[in-house]
Amino acid sequence: MHMTRSQFLFFYFVMTAALASGLALFSSASTITLALRSAAAGIFVPLILALTAAFVLDPVVSKLEKYHIPRSRSTLAIFFFILALLWLSGSWLVTYTQQMWISLLQDFPRYSAGLIKYIKEAQISWQEEFPLLAQYDLTERVREWAEKFFAFLIVATPKSALKLGSLLILVPLFAFFFIRDGANIRRSLIALAPNRYFEMAHDLSYLISRQTARFVRGRIIEASIIGLCITAGLSLTDIRYAPLLGLFAGITNLIPYLGPLMGMIPGFTIAMIDLGFGAQFWWIVILYILIAQVILDNFILIPILISRYANLHPLLVVVAIIMGGKIYGVLGMIIGIPILSACKIAFIQIRHYRRAFSLPDTGTELPH
Amino acid sequence: MHNLWDRILRSNKEEESLSTFLQRIPVFSHLNRKDFQYIKTLIHTRAYSPGEIIFEQGDPGSGMYIIRSGHVTLFTRDAHNKREDLSVLGPEDFFGETTIATPTARVISASCNEKCELLGLFRSDLFAVAERRPEIANRILLGLTSVISERLQNAILELRKYSVSEES
What is the pTM of this model? Predict the structure, then answer.
């Protein structure tokens, strides 16, 4: 193809303009996503917490609705009930947790030093057996990590108290509207579907949201029972911080496979350091592993509360935990699993749906 | 200001007519007047353009449609994809009620003859009501059962007539 000079120049300018506008579009798009991300950053956590609260409280509201109490009124009633409970227990709860937190901050260096001592002993013994690992200093890493964590705790305490304050306002607000209008929100979103796909979208969204709600509810109830059991079991011993350890074990129990192990570490550490390797220590070990995990969780709670439906492959769980942790830290580790489970539920429901309707073509069977 | 009042009054009127419209549908004949306020939150209003397919035979069916305005043709397709019209339905008629209780595929197709407004009542909504307001779900199901058994009765009579005429 032959080009005159002016044609070439024109072609050159057009290409440059196209490239420049492409770049401009790309950069503005990335600024927009950046702006969206920073705008959504503060809202993500309260939204997820509110959604969880809505899933947990929804059956209670539905039960009240059965007695002809309108939905908004029954939602309000439950919120007032929770508020009253918090109000009544408030003065005791706040001072109790505050005292516990302050004394924990004082005790933390002692516990971390004790943990490091045990690790050091272990390190020396294993380095004798495996000289190859002589260069790897686990003790130093744990010490660094503990120092960082402690510094974070001291700085984060007033900050997280402020955050907690904003959560205390946002979460109930969001949860209230999710409970009251959740069905309507879903309805109006489904209403956007084109007529031809409306029925399917409606059916699937109902099935998926019901299964997901059931799953989240099950996990929350399971974690609270585990937390209560650990708290009660620890209260029988002389260990300090039983409620905090129970709370920690309950929260980490939301992470499959790794969570229960993570939940045991502080309990074992404090028991080792404060109580030594006596009968109480072994009771705590039995409590954490045998009673809470094996008997209560695996034999009783999981078969009752969690359907095998949303079971994830261990490999997927690990991937979700790592990816969630990279994005949102510990919270991401906890949230990653239900999000992945919701995806799996959606996937299974769609497959079921397709299979249920893969009937022979009815047209050929009709007489004509 | 005038515009605002106009809008408020008009929407009220429309809502009013939706419940009075629903009261005339046999499926809802067992419901109390009060229940219609609740039913309104279950019904999906969908607008269709002329010639638009509502569902095809073989589609997953999940509920029934009530015609609020316009006309709908029910038809089947034979093995050669040739369309055979079965009947034309008008306002206050309903169709697809057999799929509301159990998930089955549609056995006929439906399309709009002109601009139509259809009201949809679907299985999942009925399940949700059964959990929250069982007595309303009961009344809807009663109405539905009587409609379906009436249609079944008619179908049996038709079949009998058909077989008698075949024999003779």
Answer: 0.77
